[in-house]
Inverse folding.
């Protein structure tokens, strides 16, 4: 039996080889495709290096990164970027010390208040108004704050959806269903236009925070569903074992169910978090100067009129870079959890 | 001898008319080993799982370690029992995301609020007793079935239980691995642990048990000493069962 498979493989491989290489008409097809491909690459390269004018990108790098953040204070967002980068690096390539691994999560949580403090100022730093926050800084801030808030809310929603208390269970299901039925842009409009109406007079929430609240509301519903899937995949005998050790419901959730559910749900959650990162660009429609918003204002500058292609290729590569980093970190985390735990 | 467990007329029905437990009554004294035998679907797992409240029952009364529970007892009362009664499952049911030592210390730290160092020392002592102290830092997925089951026994011992329940502890193991688990159980019995064991291992039952309980269709057909049960079973159904598995 064992010998059949390799034979089959060589046979099919040879067939494929024959199919692709030996017959003249296929050779001809290959040649045509090759020519088209080469000319495409050639045209692209000549456009990138000769015809295009990257001045719109290179002379505005500061704007893309920090928006209209005061120039003498730009070390603050730079420092924050650096802290994010280093914690990412430690997570992926850092040493395997147990205490480090266990406390890394606090490092990640800590980057968000650190970022807010560095951007907002106060306590020894010059305060900077949120309308000066912008560019990639703002994009990353909105993303990281929304992630930090929506993960625990998502976990809570998922647990409540499985609650034995009828009212809580129905309320959470209703919330999740509504959020999934409404398009994100509508939720964002709600956040920008309706939250101020609901608040009592005198209390005002800043635009950036309204955006973060809206994203948190939206994404937590999706994350809740991912985690519910993870919870359902845990066999019942895990719960029985925990019960037989005398653990109560909360202890079972915290120590047994949630850690295992998060491991299972990690790929799906990453998916939604990458989506969240990209969707922050919708805020440019609502007047926030995040990465896309800044780019649109740069394009409105008469000096750079008509240079859409350069700007959007640049934007696409920045978004691509950050999404790839997120996917890479998640993949590494997945691998680490799998190897350690011998699933 | 003071009885550790008294069951009086336990009755449970799954669907209409089908009784999983049919007026089950028995007592178990401290330090004794009770082996429960019966064909599959006879209710032996249900019986052992009602003792620590993993299954509910419809009628009757259960007195475990002086805690009386009836059909309508609340979760809290059952939890008091679970803290003093250990259980070992057929499928080990270790927590795959925790290391072996964390598996063992989780309940002492969280349930009994013992400090971490003390719990870990006691956990290591239990692992030594089970002969698997070298695996303490590994994860369940890296261990063989027999080793996992010994970890599960150590885990149930970590709460210093007064009664241990074994639900077919060797049924999911390779034949070669069965003895290492049975030996560990034998040592526990020698130390005077009160145990209820659901098993098909006749040799173990003959050597270790003080009483054998034979159950079929939710009804106890006989409770007798192993000498009597294996040589001269009083009930015809038990004799037929023993013939089948011999």
């Amino acid at each position: 039996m064992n010998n059949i498979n390799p034979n089959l493989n060589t046979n099919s491989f040879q067939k494929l080889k024959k199919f692709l290489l030996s017959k003249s008409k296929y050779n001809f097809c290959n040649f045509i495709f090759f020519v088209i491909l080469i000319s495409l690459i050639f045209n692209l390269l000549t456009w990138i290096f000769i015809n295009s004018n990257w001045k719109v990108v290179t002379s505005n790098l500061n704007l893309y990164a920090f928006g209209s953040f005061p120039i003498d204070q730009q070390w603050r967002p730079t420092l924050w970027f650096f802290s994010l980068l280093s914690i990412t690096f430690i997570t992926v390539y850092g040493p395997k010390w147990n205490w480090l691994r266990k406390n890394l999560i606090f490092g990640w949580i800590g980057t968000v208040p650190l970022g807010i403090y560095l951007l907002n100022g106060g306590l020894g730093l010059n305060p900077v108004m949120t309308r000066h926050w912008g560019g990639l800084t703002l994009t990353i801030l909105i993303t990281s704050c929304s992630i930090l808030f929506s993960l625990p809310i998502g976990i809570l929603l998922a647990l409540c959806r499985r609650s034995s208390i009828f009212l809580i269970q129905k309320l959470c299901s209703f919330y999740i269903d509504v959020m999934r039925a409404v398009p994100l842009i509508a939720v964002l409009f709600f956040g920008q236009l309706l939250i101020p109406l609901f608040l009592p007079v005198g209390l005002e929430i800043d635009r950036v925070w309204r955006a973060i609240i809206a994203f948190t509301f939206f994404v937590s519903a999706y994350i809740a569903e991912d985690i519910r899937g993870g919870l359902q995949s845990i066999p019942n005998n895990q719960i029985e074992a925990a019960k037989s050790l005398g653990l109560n419901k909360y202890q079972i959730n915290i120590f047994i169910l949630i850690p295992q559910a998060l491991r299972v749900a990690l790929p799906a959650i990453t998916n939604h978090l990458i989506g969240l990162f990209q969707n922050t660009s919708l805020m440019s429609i609502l007047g926030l100067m995040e990465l896309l918003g800044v780019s649109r204002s740069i394009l409105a500058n008469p000096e750079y009129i008509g240079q859409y292609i350069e700007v959007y290729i640049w934007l696409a590569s920045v978004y691509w870079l950050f999404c790839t980093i997120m996917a890479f970190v998640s993949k590494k985390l997945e691998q680490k959890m799998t190897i350690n735990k011998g699933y | 001898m003071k009885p550790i467990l008294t069951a009086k007329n336990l009755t449970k029905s799954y669907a209409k008319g089908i009784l999983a437990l049919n007026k089950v009554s028995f007592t178990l004294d401290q330090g004794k080993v009770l082996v429960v035998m019966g064909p599959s679907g006879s209710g032996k797992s249900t019986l052992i799982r009602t003792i620590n409240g993993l299954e509910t029952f419809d009628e009757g009364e259960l007195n475990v370690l002086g805690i009386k529970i009836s059909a309508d007892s609340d979760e809290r009362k059952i939890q008091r029992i679970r803290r003093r009664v250990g259980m070992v499952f057929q499928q080990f049911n270790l927590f795959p995301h925790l290391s072996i030592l964390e598996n063992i210390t989780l309940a002492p730290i969280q349930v009994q609020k013992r400090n971490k160092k003390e719990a870990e020392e006691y956990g290591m002592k239990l692992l030594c007793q089970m002969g698997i102290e070298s695996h303490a830092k590994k994860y369940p997925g890296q261990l063989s079935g027999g080793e996992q089951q010994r970890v599960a026994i150590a885990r149930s011992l970590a709460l210093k239980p007064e009664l241990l329940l074994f639900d077919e502890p060797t049924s999911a193991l390779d034949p070669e691995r069965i003895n290492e688990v049975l030996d560990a159980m034998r040592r526990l019995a020698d130390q005077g642990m009160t145990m209820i064991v659901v098993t098909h291992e006749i040799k173990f039952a003959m050597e270790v048990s003080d009483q054998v309980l034979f159950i079929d269709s939710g009804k106890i057909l006989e409770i007798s000493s192993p000498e009597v049960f294996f040589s001269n079973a009083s009930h015809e159904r038990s004799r037929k069962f023993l013939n089948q598995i011999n």
Observations:
- The mean pLDDT of chain A is 88.
